[in-house]
Amino acid sequence: MTSINLADRGVDLGEWAASTPDAAEVFADAVRAWLDENLVGEFAALRGRGGPGSEHEFFAERLAWDRHLASAGWTCLGWPTRYGGRGATLEQRIIFHQEYARANAPARVNHLGEELLGPTLIEFGSDAQKERFLPRIVDVTELWAQGYSEPGAGSDLANVSTTARLDDDRWIVNGQKIWTSLAHVAQWVFVIARSEKGSSRHKGLSFLLVPLDQDGITVRPIQQLTGTSEFNEVFFDDAVTDSDLIVGEPGEGWGVAMGLLQFERGVSTLGQQVGFARELENIVAIAKSNGAADDPEIASRITRAWIGLKVMRAQAQRTLAGEIVSQAGAASVLKLLWANWHRDLGELAMAVVGAASLIGPDVTAEGAVNDITDAEHVELDEWQRLFLFTRADTIYGGSNEVQRNIIAERVLGLPREARQ
User: Which Pfam families does this chain map to (predicted)?
Assistant: First the structure.
């Protein structure tokens, strides 16, 4: 297939591709072969595990899988080699995410570090920060959480009220974050805090790196509709972090935060769409088997879902190829497309399954669940989880309303929405 080991961390994939005929095909074959050879044994049971609504499943085992990927050189592909990455091209990164999704490989536990914070530190961080944190993201020995949303601000990042005060050689952080994914299993959190007293909106914010294992931080899981707790509320009561663990300059965290959000909607989106396509294919199979496909309304909704998937893919490819004038606007359009599409798919799944979709846990049998808060025992099927979890798709990562404001103001040049 190829004369070199593509999983070898010493290989610069970009340089290799430039000198290798049919490099894309060879790379895809290498990724596919490695996944086939390694998703076996103890890892075989992880296929399809840990997705939306099932983030609690096999966490320790999925962490071991991520570290297995790292040991074979398959983490942080797009990072420059001097930071422990592979120098992969955009095409190679897309191929990896697509093949990973096609293999039904388990959901990764290191997404926030590998896809968000790592690229942000490479772009904005100090040399000391890169040396301290990047190797531990590459080998998955430290996990990260994202401290953005707040109870009073929601997706309006510029309205955060968590404060940070510089006291000699450390920052003192006070406030509360909410919807903080994976904070209960992470060692660190990157936090947007207001560091200039009296400042407002996007001015006076700082981007801090804060250790979670300290007396000044309380992490409290939030139970979701699915009965699981993937995200949390995090309380900062005189929490501390070193004075040099600020990314960028004090008061200029808004630019760093916006840079990170651009990384959030990167090449992994195309891999996500492979998973969406699998969900749609399975729903179509059910519709054919139970006769739901004979209903003209359901058949029409399936057709619209298929068209929507093609539109999403085309938009993602145009965005990643740099064919969109406004990257901020393009990211918002793509978020609107996939979030609404996925929410509608959950509703379609309920319609296709029919009355059986309304049947929940057995509440009459001996030992039955009598309280939905008993998350350890609530059992939902795949389509119930999909329906319930996708209620949140249009909220997290920037709500529909926020995305539409970005498009209106930054792309169309419309007047800013009135704010109190």
Answer: Acyl-CoA_dh_1 (PF00441), Acyl-CoA_dh_M (PF02770), Acyl-CoA_dh_N (PF02771)
Beta bridge partners of 247: 207
Copy the structure tokens of residue 293.
């496909």
DSSP of 216-263, one letter per residue? TEEEEEE--TTS---EEEEEEEEEEEETT-EESSTTBHHHHHHHHHHH
* 30: number of Cβ within 10 Å: 19
Please, are residues 138 and 84 in contact by the beta-carbon 8 Å criterion?
yes
Q: Over the stretch 201-249, which tens digit does the pLDDT of each residue have? A: 778 899 999 999 999 999 998 877 777 777 889 999 999 999 999 998 8
Which CATH superfamily includes the segment(s) 13-109? Answer: Acyl-CoA dehydrogenase/oxidase, N-terminal domain (1.10.540.10)
Largest CA distance in the chain: 71
Query: Whose CA is closest to 268, among 59, 107, 158, 66?
Result: 107
Cα within 13 Å of Cα(173), Cβ side: 35
Strand, helix or coil for residue 203:
coil
In CATH, what class is 265-411?
Answer: mainly alpha
What is the pTM (predicted TM-score) of this model? 0.80
CATH fourth-level superfamily of 144-262: Butyryl-CoA Dehydrogenase, subunit A, domain 2 (2.40.110.10)
Are the CB atoms for 39 and 105 separated by under 8 Å? yes
Catalytic residue list contains 264: yes
Q: Which of 131, 264, 279, 401 is catalytic?
A: 264
